[in-house]
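Issue: copy button drops trailing tokens. Both records pasted manually instead:
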Amino acid sequence: MCDTLALRKAGAVWFAKNSDRDPGEFQRVERHAAVLGDTTEKLACTHIEIDQVPDRQAVIIARPDWMWGAEMGVNGAGVVIGNEAVFSRRVIKRGAALLGMDLVRLGLERGGSAHEAAAIIIHLLETHGQGGPAGWRDKGFRYDNSFLIADAAEILVLETCGREWRLERVKSHAAISNAYALEGPVTMASDGAPTEGFMVSDESWLKRKFGRARERRACSLAAIEAMKTPSLGALADITRRHDQGDGFEGGSNRDLCLHAGHGLAGGLMRPGHTTNSMLVRLMPGAPPAIAMTGTKTPCISLYRPIAFEGPSSLLSTGLWEEGAVHHDRMAADPGAREQVRARIAAAEAHVLSAIEAGRHDVAEALVAAWDDHGLAETEGSGSTEIDAPSA
């Protein structure tokens, strides 16, 4: 399960995604430089090879470490993409093609705008198809995909069903989850796509029902529509929402910040977990402002800065693993959870403001202070405040 949202407001496009995967699946944040004039003929994606292209965009991606593709990411041209599993009756049950995550990364590497990235994904979908084992542990887990694609000028929703597709250009805001949402006529569609939408005849209702995708999408849309002043901080608040309880207790598939269920029954009903989260602001003429947790469970994780140049703690070896240990410690200690959330709120307000201001040096200094003191003090008896360093 995953959730992705975007809105256009205050002269910018704002984007957020929670990546929900198997709770123990490592997800790496990676930065890849632009490439010009590559003569390599073939590219090995997760399951198949396709033709490589000579010129590629610089990308920042979040990648489950067993696959080539990415759950979400941003490129140097200011394009951002996230995908969602959708459960169509046409999903291929044997063999392999491109995973939805491969299509995310390919769209980012090859697309110079949201429109171009969508066209690339559509072309590759029609040429190679989609499908194959998509789970870390469950190799029988297969699905089709929907995509939220944006740049500073437009927001696009692309839904796919087998090799068919429907694309909508969004006026102000959108949210996608693990169910088809485009109804009726759309901006563009493949020749065979149903005018009324895929949900009418092509969607498997069982996973949609038990996954509570419609409820999560409604929660995202309500939060967007209620947002008066957009900011990375306001987006972060949405990614941390729980329907009831705090996720560790009272968790459900209605939660945007998804916690895996406990025990055999809980694991069957709620197998997914938010394993990384991303926030992006796109403005004309400015580099993307990007933050990710790089760790599971955003309600107890600090959003960290990353840019196309310069250091970032998100690229540190072992960050995800350290976050998994932190999660288990917080799961056993409700009092510590409240402390760490309060400290994150205090520190992160400065971090995200610095990212929006383009001051990655300041944001990284704040994160370094958090890593040196914030968690240690939370788990001990101190009360260290983390203040913004002087500019």
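Record 2 (pasted manually too):
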Amino acid sequence: MRLLIVGGLSGQLSAAAKIAMDKGARVAFSADVDAALSALRKGQGADVLMVDVRQDIARLIRALDEERIAAPVIACGVKTDADAAVAAIRAGAKEFIPLPPDALLIAAVLEAVAEESSDLIAVDPAMKKVIALADQVAASEASILITGESGVGKEVIAKYVHSKSRRAARPLISINCAAIPENLLESELFGHEKGAFTGAVARRIGKFEEADGGTILLDEISEMDVRLQAKLLRVLQERVIDRVGGTKPVKIDIRVLATSNRNLAEEVRRGTFREDLLFRLNVVNLCVPPLRDRPADVLALAEHFTKKYAALNGVAHRPLSEAARLAIAGAKWPGNVREIENAMHRAVLLAVGDEIDRDAIRLPDGSGLQQKAPPEDAAPGGPLVGRTVAEVEQALILQTLDHCFGNRTHAATILGISIRTLRNKLKQYAVEGVAVPPPAAERASA
């Protein structure tokens, strides 16, 4: 994370900077608001601004809004600066950190405001296959298209690829193409010269120049207008950009990653996405599977997020009860990883007792989890009629095991039986000559 500290460097503010650096942040300094704005316009870039409350925070936030520089502001000041703290929050500061600084508070606030996440959990063979491909291509300079449904973790995969690349020491600059209005996206990507349009009060470096030497992530690339796609294609072909209102091209050295939750081949057929741009971006495709296709990751993610949010909220970590684990494993999770993360965050806050029980795991409206629908052939009066209980049990166990890619622990959890019972059943089927799916470890190495 890139942190820009604005204000005096002596005393307690510099102590806050040291704590942030100890937490892994890359810290830069500006003496005042004007110096900070100048640095941001020149492409220094920052994920978070930590500003001395005695600075003109209202003017800083106004300028950031007018020049469309997306960087949240955290105000800092001594506990006696109560009026200044209130004014800073009213002006648009996201948080106020009292000084002298507290290490845990700074770590929590920076994580919450910057929204950085490295929650890469890969237990299921389907997800491990994606990670293996990412490892294989990360060191190259190839453009990578990361696809998958909303909430599956495409941005997390992009961060992972960058961290494994030869550009890892340089910045990863992300821009959400769906979040910026069409008429502003060009300036955001390529920058602009002073006077290029109303509100362009100074030269502004765009995201491509900011990412020079590093990686740029074009999030939800499918939302980009076709006309702007043509300019992006030139950037990928020639590695030069033209600032809005500029008179000469600017050379850049970047690696491009892009994400999309749409089928871009279908968008090409509809005429909303350029085929030549798709070829340029899709040198390698990393398709991140939804949670329903990587069932072994569900409980691993749930446990990870309970630990994460217990620490973030300063509460004791409590394990998931067996009933909670069964409910989580059997739920639909249409929102994928993002949905299970939010549910576990709520559960950490709502749980009572020594465990997180099923009752604490709720949807945003307060209702319980939606469970997966039973197979069609399990309907009353369906094809089950005429079959023995042993035959139905065998079919259920083998189908569940295949659904879990051979992961016997996860299959046993879904079936509601012990792993020992499952192993005994599988041994019995093997003796009877029934083909039994190999364990997950053997399947992954095959």
